[in-house]
Each structure stands twice: as structure tokens, then as C-alpha cells.
Amino acid sequence: MKLLIQSLLKGLAIILPLVITIEIFRWLLQTIESALAPLLQLVLNNDWYYPGMALLSFIFLCTVVGFSARWRGISWLWELPGKILMKIPGASQIYGILQDLMELMSGKNFADESVVLVKLPQSDVELIGIVTKKGGIKDDRMSSLMSDEQLAVFLPMAYNVGGYTIIVPKSCTKSIDMKPAEALQLVLSGGLGKSNASSRS
Questions:
Q1: Among 87, 105, 123, residue at a domain's last position
Q2: Could you say which residues form the signal peptide (predicted)?
Q3: DSSP H or E segment with residue 22
């Protein structure tokens, strides 16, 4: 009986992440397709429209937006909807959190040494964190709370979409060779994942 239960749990551990990941992607693809399909059918007529064209159009649109955002003369146009949302109570919090999460996962605005080990005071315990701000940055709210020798470090929590942002002296941190997305995956999984990272001095 014990062997049967262990086999069941092992099977669930293998199958459930696959099923959940596939279902999330399937839901996302279906949402994009169903939202853009009527527009394409109106433009192209039903005779020219084929299933999947809406998704391909969405990917093409994202590529064009991302490429054109490299120029300041055009980038303000793509930033305008976000600025409007940031003025709306409620929507600003949701949009801001999603935007920060996407930037965090993509590694945007992070330096090579943004993932650090934070040593707790009077202890040998160290926590994996991601440097989000440095002191001395002009016109930045978080940076204004810190001195030039301090860092704002985000400490994610295992099995939880959350964490703590702490302000620590640079002397309490040690850089490790890991990308922010890797660090998030490693910490959120409680270290049970298969990601490897080597320390550097």
C-alpha cells in the first residue's frame, strides 16, 4: 500500500506540472485567438481567414511594438496606454504589479550582479535575493530612502507569489552568478528544482 501511494504521488509530481503548464498556455492562446479572430475575419473576410492567424498576428504585433519601442520618437506612443492606466485607481496597482513582474522575469533593468546572497546580521544564515535598486539614483523614490552604500534587495518566498524588500549595506551582500529569473525559480520552488548556479567572488 505504501509503495502504491508513493508511486501515485511520484506520478502526480510528474504529470500535474505538465498538465497545468499546458492548460495555462492553451487558455492564453485561446484567449488571444478568440479576441483577435473577429477583427481579422472582418478585415480579411471569412474566405481568407484560417484558425491560428490571430495568434500569428499577435506575435507579429508584439515583435513590431518591441522593435519600434527602441526609438524615442515612437516609444512614447506605446507608453501612453500604460501612463493612462497608472492614473486610474485600482487599475494602476494591477498594471504596475504585472509590469514589474514581467520586467523582473525578463531580467530587464537588472545588472549582471543583481542576484546576491544576503547575510543575516550576527548569523551564518544567507538568503537569495535580487537587487532592485541602488542608492544615489536621482528622482527615484526607493533610492531616495538609501545611502550610496546601501542596496534594496527583494527576497522572494518559497511557494508563494510574494516576498520582502529589504534595505541592506552592500557589505552584507555577495554576488552570485545567476539570472533573476533563475533565482526566482530556484527560491519559489524551495530549492527543489534542477537549476544550477556557481558562486563568484
A1: 105
A2: none
A3: helix 2-48
